[in-house]
Here is the input.
Amino acid sequence: MAAPASSSSPAPTTSASPPPPPFVPAVSPAKLTAACPFLDSAEIAKAFSDSNIYDSSEQIPSVQGGLTVYTCKYHRTDDDGSLLAALEIAETPTMVAQKTLLQVAEQECADKAQPLGEAAIYCLSKGNGTDIAVIEPSHGVTRVAHLSLAAPRNDGFRAGYTTLAKTLADRL
Here is the structure.
């Protein structure tokens, strides 16, 4: 006698909600239209081993010294008033020497600027925070990223400053 045919049914599947899409960083866009895509709030927190959860918000572009400046503000998700950092990105209409623009950035420092590679510096800002400036030629212009951290400069965080400067340089 032959064995009865078995009915094989597919294993039950569970349906879970997919995780939110990961942050996809900008890869040097040809046209500058915003600052937030250049640096995710989680990247800032990770650079300093900060367990808080932060959010970002793009601000209305402004004009400073004849240049359009795009600004992204980073704050704790549970407190919009808790500013972690602000990222400003602008581009010059032509190629400008990185050294020249770094000298301009150094004027915003309250102490001696420290190098973070060839075209980036960090220092104590005049507002008692930490400033990181990154200058990068890109798409026939020179782009400038200025990251202002609320916390005062701490040389123990140099690795974090370097990580953020390199990330910005790669994306400008």
Summary: Confidence is low (pLDDT under 50) at residues 1-22. The first strand starts at residue 54 and ends at 58. The two ends are 75 Å apart (CA to CA).
